[in-house]
Amino acid sequence: MPEILLNLAIMKKAALIFALVVIPMLAQASDFEITVNRKKNGLSNSAGSVVQNSSQNWTGEVNITCHAFKPFPELEARYIIFVKRQAIGQQGKDKIEKQKGTFKVPPMKSGSTSSFLTTEVVLKQAHLAPGWVVVSGASKAEDSVLGVWVKLLDGPKEVAEYVNPTTLTAKYKWE
Q: Both 82 and 123 in a single domain?
């Protein structure tokens, strides 16, 4: 019987700690919802005698929705777009480029939404014309967006974060 009372006392303390520590953190994490939608802007093609090139312009539309009960003053959104760059004949030597940017988010109250566009990313594609080969076997190259990481800041304090895909945080550091 004393063991049951001891276990109940431990469970009550654990529940109290959960209520005091974890629930406020969850509430704060849900104060903002951030989404990023891909926007394609332009397409260009050029054909040379050996290499045929094309490019696609890409921007991200970042949407921030405030779910907090209190209004927030001007916030700052910082983002990094991770781009994989390839080159013909450079198989396995992809370069990862980080395009960074910031945006001043106007004051927000509960239910309000703010949106902005990221800087434009140019994604290039290249392939060799028929009849041409590269010794390495990499006869085409295509850039791609690996993901987007957005942080929302209230002064020095981070109030929300969006990462897509979530594996970016394991592979790269926020800089």
A: yes
Number of folded domains that form the chain:
2
The reply to whether 47 and 96 lie within a common domain is: yes
Q: Is the peptide bond before 165 cis (omega within 30 degrees of 0)?
A: yes
Tokens of 142: 């295509």
117-152 pLDDT per residue, tens:
999 998 887 776 666 666 666 667 788 899 999 999
Which CA distances in Å does 44 have to 53, 123, 126, 129, 135?
Answer: 8, 11, 12, 17, 28
Q: Please give the residue range of the domain that contains residue 14.
A: 1-30
Q: What is the pLDDT of residues 87-120, one digit of tens each?
A: 766 666 788 899 999 999 999 999 899 999 999 9
Same domain, 113 and 127: yes
Strand residues in the chain grouped as ranges (E): 32-47, 51-66, 75-85, 95-105, 113-117, 121-128, 140-142, 144-154, 157-164
Indicate if 9 and 57 belong to the same structural domain.
Answer: no
Nearest CA-CA partner of 115 in 167, 54, 62, 75: 62
